[in-house]
Fold:
Amino acid sequence: MSIELEQKTEAQNNLADRLTFPPAVEALLIQAFSLCICGVGILFAYLVFAKIISLLFFLVAHALIAACISYRRKMDWWWWIIQFLFPIAAFLLLTLDVPRHYYLAVFVVMALLFWSTFRTQVPYYPSRASLPSLIHDFLPDKSLKFVDLGSGLGGLVLNLSLRRGDSVFWGVEIAPLPWLLSYIRSKFHPANARFFLKNYDNINLGDFDVVFAYLSPAAMPALWNKVASEMRPGSLFLSYEFIVPDVEPDLCINTDSGDPILYIWRI
Ligand SMILES: C[S@@+](CC[C@H](N)C(=O)[O-])C[C@H]1O[C@@H](n2cnc3c(N)ncnc32)[C@H](O)[C@@H]1O
Structure:
């Protein structure tokens, strides 16, 4: 019991550390801190030893320090790589002398595509082409209301709506660009597919018979709380690839093709 308690306290401390900032802000602060350390190092080498540090050494030191701090801060492994590559990529881009408005254009497209990913920790990436058939084969054989939380470009909702004319399929998406594209696509499809530009936190899951999510590990605990408090008995919660920590699913659908698992909870 005491070991469990200690483990829990340590986990809570780690969580408290990690929750101080969203990862993207934390990563930016680490970059700034590493830059300062390297700047002080250069100044020290020059003033004390009259040595001029080469640019290459400075860049590699900056990249390494940023990656090591990210590791020490227990950021996810992909941040270590991003943190290492970022200063080098930034330097290379500066040497290419790219016109400034290109940066602005890329920034605007990225912002519309990824929107509040820095807060939700759920970026856009599409599910596999095999997913609609997997879900379709499993759907109860009666008229139902289905929602895809974070519907991206809308492929899943549109595909299912074509196969199941007796049911209603909703997509809820927080990022403007994917939502706009799914909305336009829905105009060329039957009316039983609808897309909403919304945060799924602001919809009532009790309105649906089947709730589907393909999000990220970071989103699952809070989403499960919402599922448990809002969904009706007899409804289904489906999560592609990401399991809810400590909540055993009723069913795991695994294909032989190496695609991610579809987890299913009967409420
Ligand atoms: C991994 S993609 C999945 C896309 C789509 N469901 C599919 O299967 O291809 C996750 C999507 O969820 C969206 N998202 C993340 N948090 C959200 C939120 N709180 N409310 C609505 N959408 C959200 C992201 O913008 C992203 O487009």
